[in-house]
Amino acid sequence: MTRRTYPGRLASGGIALGFLHRTDRPHTRTTLPHRTSGDAIHQITDAFDAVAARLLELSTSLREQGKDEQADIMEVNSYIAQDHDLRGKAIERAHHGQPAAIAIRQAVDTYARAIAALDDPTLAERAADVRQVGRRALNWLHGEVGPAPDQPLVLVAHEIGAADLLEPGQTVTAAISVTGGPNSHAAIVARSLGIPLLLAVDPQLLDLPDGQEILLDADRAAAVTHPDDDERTRALHAMETARTRRLALAEERHLPAETLDEHRIVLRANVATPAEARAALTTGAEGVGLLRTELPFLNHPAWPTRNQHAATLVPVLRTLTGQVVTARTLDFADDKLPPFLSQGRKGARLGRGLPLMLAQPEAFADQFRSLLSAGADTDLRIMIPMVASIDELRACRRLLQTVAAEAGVPTPPLGIMVELPEAVAAADHLAREASFLSIGSNDLTCQLLGLDRRDPTATPAMAAHPAVLDAIARVVTAAHRHNRQVSVCGDAAAHPLVTPLLIGIGCDSLSVAPAALDEVRARIRRLRHDTCASLAAVALSRETPEEVWRLVEQCCQPSLP
Ligand SMILES: C=C(OP(=O)(O)O)C(=O)O
Q: Which residues cross the membrane (predicted)?
């Protein structure tokens, strides 16, 4: 028994112990058991039908348990298994004489590769879903959908899928994957279930036999085979502590996000789907601080029409009836350009969302029309991304006023995202005319520090860089001079080393992922606003983010449950 450590990249933290179970062992048999009596074409159809039905069953059972976000993911996977294009590609190969398993494998590869080639990180993750569906179809053909062992499992795969983590009748304590990204569905599900997930491990791990004990240790971002007794005890203890902590944080949901010296912070959620909107309300969000509207259109062939906007907006806004909803207009930026904008634009400054939208006033007006109508039962606010100048804000307002007048409804509050250095420089003018300001710390940090958003060093903690803090402080001062509220809706709002600084600088509101709401609320409730203000003042005089992180660690680390 050799002990070995496999380092990786953490996509979901925690410590867990369990027995290795590989979910995607290669099929070695050349002949298939007779799952179906028909030819290859029938086998393909039956395999995809069986997978679609299984995933739908899984989705229904998750929905019955109130796990809507996970249910939605399974439902989407089931639609992939029903996709005519995908099946068609496999059937075409079968027509040319290929056996069902090979036809499915090749069709799935081609389909997934075509999606991944769009060079968009979000779609690359959808390609992973297609491969998972393909793997399930192949498993079905090989008769390998039996129940998993009744033990605490550490799932291991070349590429873990969300459905692997959700399969009922098994206890998954952790998962390890050779490939996959931190934004994959598997990573989202792992984080929402509190299952530690390690990515980018050495593929040699795949050669280990099922059933051997394996430890996933977030502190070391590593998996360890044959852990010793001390490691085992520590892991079991950490697992129990994490479970108790999640329950304790949830106990505070009904309490306001207020510091010990009674400074109130408005705590909202960032959402894009109805499932996230439901999760936000369940976890006590005071409405939505950022509704991302562009995500459904990243693979869209043309500017979305009014009806296409409505199809995506109505379900999520219906969930949010009566709530504050800060809806951001389409934000097609360099790192998320749909095909109809990407040609020849890579890296070009024009790739930023707002100039593109203003160059298409009819497309822009269509989104306003849909928002006004779909959001009629919400407390709707509209937010413009990537604003660089007062002229841009005025152009947006004129268009919104025209659309609202046509519809015979009042013009909703119109605010801006501050995520460009130009907006920081023009903060005073912008604050005078915008109804509210929201700091997009993800982009602003990268813009100010010259980082690419896909750069692994572009972490939310980098918002503690004194240059970024200084920019945020300027925006807050300008906004408060004009009685405008400032929110932060980038990921830094939820980072333990940045939240106290944002509160200390004077941000009025934080908007975070629904999964982070309990933790951020509990953190706010254990901070003092006056301490945060002194801390922020000192941080602004420091030179590096490392110095600021140390400062926060020393004076402002509340002990959460
Ligand atoms: C919230 C932000 O926008 P995005 O949706 O691009 O992350 C941001 O940049 O901080």
A: none
239 and 316 both lie in a single domain: no
Q: Does 118 lie in the same domain as 224?
A: yes
Residue with the nearest Cα to atom 8 of ligand 1? 440
Q: What is the CATH number of the domain that holds 139?
A: 3.50.30.10
Q: How far apart are CA 369 and CA 292, in angstroms?
A: 17
Kindly give the distance from the C-alpha atom of residue 119 to the centroid of ligand 1, in angstroms, as a whole number: 19
The two tokens of residue 15 are 């410590």
- Its domain, for residue 268, covers 261-555
pLDDT digits (tens, 9 = 90+) for 392-409: 999 999 999 999 999 999
Q: Is 441 near ligand 1, meaning CB less than 6 Å away?
A: yes
Residue 497 included in any domain: yes
Do 307 and 201 lie in one domain? The reply is no
Mutation test residue for ligand 1: of 419, 445, 507, the one with most atoms within 8 Å of CB? 419
Residue 561 lies in a domain: no
Contacts (Cβ under 8 Å, ≥6 apart) of 501: 464, 469, 532, 535, 536, 539, 548, 552
Domain total of the chain: 2
Task: Report the distance separating Cα 545 and Cα 536, nearest Å.
Answer: 12
CA 526 from centroid of its chain's CA atoms: 27
Based on the fold, state whether residues 239 and 340 are members of the same structural domain. Answer: no
Report the residue among 120, 439, 489 best suited for mutation to probe ligand 1: largest number of ligand atoms under 8 A from its CB: 489
**302 touches 547 (CB < 8 A):** no
Residues 491-524 pLDDT 10s:
899 999 999 999 999 999 999 988 789 999 999 9
C-alpha 491 to ligand 1 mean position (Å): 8
ipTM for the predicted complex comes to 0.99
Instruction: Give every CB contact of residue 327 below 8 A, 6+ residues apart in sequence.
Output: 288, 291, 293, 313, 371, 375, 380, 381, 382, 383
Instruction: In whole angstroms, give the CA distance from residue 326 to residue 286.
Output: 11
Residue partners of 349: CB distance under 8 A and separation at least 6: none
Cβ–ligand 1 distance for 440 under 6 Å, the answer yes
The CATH number given to whatever domain includes residue 336 is 3.20.20.60
